[in-house]
Hints:
Low-confidence stretches: none
Keywords: Acyltransferase, Cytoplasm, Transferase
CATH topology: Aminopeptidase
Structural class: alpha+beta
Helix content: 25-40%
EC number: 2.3.2.6
Pfam family, one: Leu_Phe_trans
CATH superfamily: Leucyl/phenylalanyl-tRNA-protein transferase, C-terminal domain
Radius of gyration: 16 Å
Largest sheet: 7 strands, mixed
Number of domains: 1
InterPro entries: Acyl_CoA_acyltransferase, Leu/Phe-tRNA_Trfase, Leu/Phe-tRNA_Trfase_C, Leu/Phe-tRNA_Trfase_N
Function: Functions in the N-end rule pathway of protein degradation where it conjugates Leu, Phe and, less efficiently, Met from aminoacyl-tRNAs to the N-termini of proteins containing an N-terminal arginine or lysine.
Amino acid sequence: MRLSVTKVLEAYRRGYFPMADPQTGRIWWFSPDPRAVLPLAEFHVPRSVARLVRRSVFEVYHDRAFDAVVAACADRSESWLSKELQAVYRELYRVGHAHSVECWQEGQLVGGLFGIAIGGAFFGESMFHRVTGASKVALVHLVTHLRWRGFRLLDIQFLTPHFLQFGAEEISRHLFEKQLAEALALPVHW
């Protein structure tokens, strides 16, 4: 069965997200317990990343090259971003639910991230960098934008050492579902 925008949005609203098996392309749905989030109010910017942001090493934009960001995130030896998932994320972008934050240098896309926005919740999906620090700077800009727009939840799905340095934490599925419901009820727009 082909993924539809409606089905994918409903899954996110219920706390599930899709990932494809890198070998077969089969889509699996996940709702981990515990769930990793980046608390927007307690977001921590490491000193080295703060220096990069202050120095304006990258030009940072939103939604200028969404398709290129998704393609770059999928460009790995093994990727959960199957062609089918890439297509549905591009469609979610076209209907206003998927967004990218991009870092550019000398006219070249050198890093970025993308995710899904529904109400006051942002579901971070993937990030990439071709220049050291670019994806981290994109993350700082994402959090700044989410705070400015009134978002309440930044879901990062799984806790990694990369996200720990920014203050990421794991919360129970019960608490995640509570925070998700509160965030979804907000009349927030990207």
